[in-house]
Fold this sequence. Notes:
By secondary structure, the chain is mainly α. The protein is 73% helix and 0% strand.
Amino acid sequence: MDKVSEILKKTINSIVFILFVMVTIIMTINVVGRFFQPFMPDGINIQIAWAEEFVKFAVLWIVWLGSAVIILDKGHFALHFLTRKYPDSRLLKTIQFLSTIIMASVLIYYGIEISFELSILKTPSLQISKMYVYMIVPLSGLLMIFFEFVATVRRNTKNPL
């Protein structure tokens, strides 16, 4: 399970990196295009029409995928003043585990519900179903649950050597 989680983490990090590079390139082209637009002859538009929409959806995917991976690295929200005061508290670890599972389950349930409701709508510029854009929410919920289980197994099977 640990090897699968590391492969999954590397894959997600690669996807996030590629999306981030694409967002940077597309936004740079659009900014430069807006700068030079007044100097272009009439009828020539060097801006990318779908850029703003793509960037908005890519950032959405970057944030949700990143939020799933951060659980594996123990970088998620925690009550640090309690975990520092009681570092070996089983109760705190159980509350953290259950709250993550419950929140991810809510994301899965409502994410699927909203995604299927939006399946008939298309994005204005890209002309793709909004379902594909918003399916990242339940997908990240599934990844969060998986990564939380992996993090819990890692924490409970510490190697004493």
